[in-house]
Amino acid sequence: MLHQHAPAVERLGMPAFRTGQEALHGVAWMGRATVFPQAVGLGATWNDALLRRVGEAVGREVRAMRAADPRVGLNVWAPTINPLRHPLWSRNEEGYAEDPRLTAALATAYTRGLRGDHPERWRTAPVLKHWLAHNHERDRDTASTSLRPRVLHEYELPAFRGPVRAGGVAGVMPAYNLVNGRPNHLSPLLASALRTWTDLPLVVCSDAYAPSNIAGSQGYLPDHEQGLAAALTAGVDSFTDHGTDAAPTVARLTAALGRGLITRADIDAAAARLLALRIRLGAFDPGPDPFDDEAAFDTPEHRALALTAAEQAVVLLKNEGLLPLRPGTRVAVVGPLADEVKLDWYSGALLRRTTPLAGLRAHRGVASVEFAEGADVVRLRMASGWVTVPEAGDQDAGAGGQAAAFDPALLGGRTDLPPLTVGRASGATSFTLTDWGDGVLTLRAPDGRYLSVADDARVRASAEAPGGWVVRETFTLEPHGDAHVLRHRGSGGLVGVAEGELTVGERGEPLHVETVERGEDAVRAAAGAADVVLVVAGNDPHINGRETEDRSTLALPPRQEALWRAAHAANPRTALVLVSSYPYAVPEADAALPALLWTAHGGQAAGEALARVLCGDVSPGGRLPQTWYARDEDLPELLDYDLITARATYLYHDGAPLYPFGHGLSYTTFGYAGLAAEVVDGTLTATVTVTNTGAVAGDEVAQLYLSAVAPSVPRPHRWLIGHRRIHLAPGESREVTFAVPADEALGFWDVAHGRWCVEPGAYTVAAGASSRDPRATAELTVDGERPGPRPVSTAGLAAADWDESEGTELVDTTRVSGDAVAAGPDAPGELLFRRCDFGAGAREVRLRAARAEPGSATVELRVPGTGCRVTLRVPSTGDRYAWTTVTAELPEPPTGVHDLRLTLRGQVRVDRLHFN
Predict the structure, then answer these.
(1) In whole angstroms, what is the distance from residue 549 CA to residue 553 CA?
(2) Are 761 and 864 within one domain?
(3) Burial status of residue 276 (CB atoms within 10 A of its CB: 0-12, 13-18, 19 or more)
(4) 20 to 30 Å CA-CA from 587: which of 429, 486, 511, 702?
(5) Do the domain assignments include residue 286?
(6) What is the DSSP letter of 542?
(7) Residue 79 shares a structural domain with residue 186
(8) Does the pLDDT at position 397 exceed 90?
(9) Which among 163, 102, 86 has a CA at the least distance from the CA of 131?
(10) Does the structure show a pLDDT above 90 at 231?
């Protein structure tokens, strides 16, 4: 019962059960389903009510699809609610927003829709991903996130806490990474935080293969029995490991039981939580299920909802009067995404689709539409001949590409089509070559099939689109003398020729690329003959930024930059439409072009939705769910999770973003007036009147922010405490009221005392159209308890509770619990603790530290402004968890309140200090 694939227990009449059905923005991996916009696109709607309706629709389709295919599971692994701290994280497409409160609100709405409203039975059982602090794919199973207490309590935990407390969450999935040196699957916060937020028996489902990582790639425990035992006692209930084969997991847990590493009570606790989940899903109920009558699939309502969601996700970034398109406009639609509907790893297969090109051609307000993809058309000549795609007969080009796959990672590519051959120039095939940046290419045959490499290492024109866990459709051209060799990225092999067929292996055959048509020339021709040009650029979610592969830059791929420049040179009335899973840095396009839009990949209705917005049927109302930075240099290092020190996200970023969090324009204008705010009985209430001051109807997202006027610790520039998407007719006004718990809205984590704190004083409440566009402000004076100094003389000092740090990382005190601070061998580490109260005088310090390496390290203690300065030498303890206490007398014993500095030299781990 503790494995993902729990077998049936016939003697008890229990059917088989599995945890895990992907349902991030529609039912995934099980064939054709309604595909809604990517999660980051749903985040751009800022519309809680819409997210709930989408969740309801997905839940109904899960139920309907399960009736036809028992492989469809009711325990859905969705949504992903890691705040989008860093835009180079390749799984940016899976999250809702960089703000934890917005993330929590949207996740609450989506999970409530998935769960349903029945008082006892659940439509589906949502599991939140990924606990905790997971925004990187680089070394994702071995890298440790250094997570300081303030970031943990103010940024990471609130995103999870909101939906869990709302009662629509069945559990969580731990992330692959480590936090403060300890694997997330052993996180003590599962017990000390997560399971204290609700009375529901939350289930913790491991991520795929992660249990084996504990003693495997992470090397955290010496064998798998100890690894799985530690996960079980930490709170993991369902082990996702070894695919459908439960035997290794059962064997390891059985051995752990025999060794006394776990008890029967540990097993019973996990099994009970899993059984409680199955009971809530009605697995053991006789008679009809309360959700049977509502189970529905691909209904007109779901199709309309997919269109509405795609419309509401469109964000107008800039507009100097070019949009909306006037009736009768001749349009040129160009770019690599102009005639595409791209899917991502967690998409379902499309039941229907409209591309931007198709959407505009179908719109009655457009006079004519010209199209140019903007990719080069090339022929490939190898030493033994010209590359040719053989006749494929009557095979279906899409066969297998959209089939249901219990685990699409296991798909091995098509082998039913003939491999590419080499021959005479007269038979050479012309391929569409698309450069996606970073040297990554795709090649497409005239019939639309992409070149792909199957398990037999043959190259075929066989794929409907790039995809799969290992993408088999991407290549790079590498210089080779006066020619090139073509490397297959999925396998790392080189393309060569064997017996007249293209194969991939260790040795490649040089080739020459002959350009038949330049993409930029086609774009110029189309642009010059149009009234308005729409350059549709962006990403393919399976290329250059996807699960396991973070992005390298915010920049638009150079070939796509060249396309908008070519279009603009031919026709100044050019708009850049970015369709992408993440933000780009496009400052030059912003400066040069009269209009820019962004939308995430919008699912099945993407093209129709975009056309309706461009033509003015719908006024754009989407808002950016994360900051769009102007350049790579504005970003912290990918693994730097200390957004306070790194000055990251809209909360702390000190520079001028290209487009701020919450930004989005409309075809109308909105005014704000009469903002008033007060705190009564523990609730902060704010009211503001929003008026449509323009000539057309539209949606406004009213955003409410707080900022502290004179905080005693670094606080965000401003932070979101409320939002509301409203529709207003021209001239219409509406009073919008926000009511939020005052302590959550106003407080911060006081590291000096290990508690949540609301600081008294003045705060500014601002309502407006973005984080950088306040339209109305009000002052608010709050009573509270001003944080006192650190009581180090009586309570000691936890090293992990620093105020400022440089050159250190947070690590695990033990394999079970606790956080400490470590410094490396190359440079000293610095820790600053502000306002430490030494009382009547501290004469002695006791330092708890560890050093696994031979030799010794030092920890220097200084109290600035006094003569107190002492160096403590930490000897080798032989193990990172072997702690020793080093004692020293303090010269000129400090009294009263002072700052305290520690300098760590050499590889040393510091846990606590005590003063006598």
Answers:
(1) 12
(2) no
(3) middle
(4) 702
(5) no
(6) T
(7) yes
(8) no
(9) 163
(10) yes
**Does 739 share its domain with 858?**
no
CB-count burial class (<10 Å; 0-12, 13-18, 19+) for 219: exposed
Band (pLDDT 50/70/90 cuts) for residue 407 is low
Q: What is the CATH number of the domain that holds 466?
A: 2.80.10.50
Other C-beta atoms lying within 10 Å of the C-beta of residue 566: 25
Query: Per-residue pLDDT tens for 159-211?
Result: 999 999 999 999 999 999 999 999 999 999 999 999 999 999 999 999 999 99
Within a 13 Å sphere around the CA of 101, how many CA atoms are in the beta-carbon half?
A: 18
User: What are the strands, taking DSSP E only, across 794-896?
Assistant: 797-798, 804-806, 808-812, 819-823, 829-837, 844-850, 856-862, 869-875, 884-889
> Do the Cβ atoms of 667 and 694 come closer than 8 Å?
yes
Is 452 in a helix, a strand, or coil? strand
Q: Could you tell me whether strands 329-334 and 366-372 are parallel, antiparallel, or unpaired per DSSP bridges?
A: parallel
Other C-beta atoms closer than 10 Å to the C-beta of 455 total 11
Which tokens belong to 28?
């995934």
| Residue 131 three-state SS | strand
> In what helix (H) or strand (E) does residue 212 lie, and over which residues does it extend?
helix 210-215
Which domain does 848 fall in, by range?
792-915
Helix (H, G, I), strand (E, B) or coil at 698: strand
Which residues lie closer than 8 Å to 659 by C-beta, 6 or more apart? 317, 624, 627, 628
Q: Scan for tokens 């109308």, then name that residue.
A: 668
Place of tokens 């409410």: 704
Q: Is residue 494 within 8 Å of 504, Cβ to Cβ? A: yes
- pLDDT single digits (tens) 322-352: 999 999 999 999 999 999 999 999 999 999 9
Q: Are 796 and 835 found together in one domain?
A: yes
Query: Average pLDDT for residues 422-443, to the nearest whole number?
Result: 96
Does the pLDDT value for residue 402 go beyond 70? no
Q: Where are the alpha helices (DSSP H) in 259-350?
A: 264-280, 300-312
Distance CA 180, CA 580 (A): 32
Where is average pLDDT lowest: 70-84, 396-410, 430-444, 820-834?
A: 396-410
> Would you say residue 541 lies in a domain?
no
Q: Which long-range contacts (CB under 8 A, 24 or more apart) does 482-487 make?
A: 483/510, 483/511, 483/512, 484/510, 484/511, 484/512, 484/513, 485/509, 485/510, 485/511, 486/380, 486/511
Last residue of a domain, one of 252, 280, 308: 280
Is residue 229 a contact partner of residue 197, using CB atoms and an 8 Å limit? no
138 and 208 share a domain? yes
Q: Please determine, for residue 13, whether its predicted confidence score (pLDDT) is greater than 80.
A: yes
DSSP track, 647-692: T-HHHH--S--SB-TT--B-SS-EEEEEEEEEEETTEEEEEEEEEE
Count the residues in the chain.
916
On the CB side of 891, CA atoms within 13 Å amount to: 11
User: Which residue is it, tokens 């490649």?
Assistant: 508
Extended beta strands in 148-221, E state: 171-174, 178-179, 182-183, 203-204
Single residue among 255, 280, 305 that ends a domain in this structure: 280
Q: Is 403 strand, coil or helix?
A: coil
Instruction: Report the alpha-carbon distance of residue 2 to residue 630 in Å, rounded.
Output: 48
- Please give the DSSP secondary-structure letter assigned to residue 637: P
256 pLDDT above the threshold of 60: yes
Count structural domains, the chain.
Answer: 4
